[in-house]
Amino acid sequence: MGRKILGIILLCLALLIIISIPVALFTPVGGTVTNLFSPPTPTPTPRPVLTVRGTPPAIGSKIAYLVDDDTGNVLVNVKGRERVPMASTTKIMTAILTIDKADLNQVVTIKQDAIDEAKVHNGSNAQLVVGDQIRLKDLLYALMLPSGDDAATAIADSVAGSQTQFVTMMNAYAKQLKLQNTHYINADGLTYEGKDGKPDPNHYTTGEDLVKLTRYAMRNPLFAQIVQLQKYVLPANGVHHAYDWETTDTMLSTYAGLTGVKTGFTGEAGYCLVFSAYSSGHRLVGAVLDAKDEEERFKDASSLLDWAFALPVLPPPAPKQ
């Protein structure tokens, strides 16, 4: 009799255990009970980041914006949301839009309008020759290294059929990338004058938007490879002349760890520079706009990078409750 009762008790216990398992695993009540007997989950330690201490160095450029690319932390912001013309840093959008949307193996025939673009507006050029047939991918080097306004026009014509249609694509892509304070009227950043003889004010960006765009572009391996080159040689063949393109970004040869990106200048925009660099495990992306001359823009960028790379790496502050 005793054995029978013991057997019934054991059977009931077994059934209770079987019933309690799904309750413990799949219901809120069970989870609460289980947690009572579980060790507390340790609070994850925040990843240390470059942390601003003190003030950035004084600079001559009117606008500066610098970001820790690994975390998105803004390290320097001097009028970073002020809309201003950006000269040839416009070509960052021209290049990444072409890389993302076009067939880079397409062969482009250089037309007279490309040559005229640089001549009429007193722009820089890649010495392209009318009638030459050049692969679209190669034209990206002509665009970004010598800052060819002729290359920008040739690219726009080939990708969209005309510069006007290409500009429509640029503005649509700016919206897609959430560049809320950016608008383009051409593919190269040259100053266009209105009927009143004054510069068209509808070509603008901000330091913040320019850095945001560049951070996106630098994640593309081809773009990143192009903008860190100091020279690109395209040998002659049966359909085009030989070309030897050198970068306008002389800081690439003077600042260790610099990985690009683009210079710019017009009378309205002043001297501009978008830059990226890598050192001690950190990647920084920044822009200085409206400097008084080439020396000032490079000096300002160097000073900002030196200061930022020397910042302490500390855990971020706890979020406010």
UniProtKB/TrEMBL annotation:
GO terms for molecular function: carboxypeptidase activity. Keywords: Carboxypeptidase, Cell shape, Cell wall biogenesis/degradation, Hydrolase, Peptidoglycan synthesis, Protease, Signal. It comes from the Bacteria. Pfam families: Peptidase_S11. The keyword Nucleotide-binding does not apply. Residues 55-292 form the Peptidase S11 D-alanyl-D-alanine carboxypeptidase A N-terminal domain. Coiled coil: none annotated. SUPFAM superfamilies: beta-lactamase/transpeptidase-like. Belongs to the peptidase S11 family. This is D-alanyl-D-alanine carboxypeptidase. It comes from Ktedonobacter robiniae.
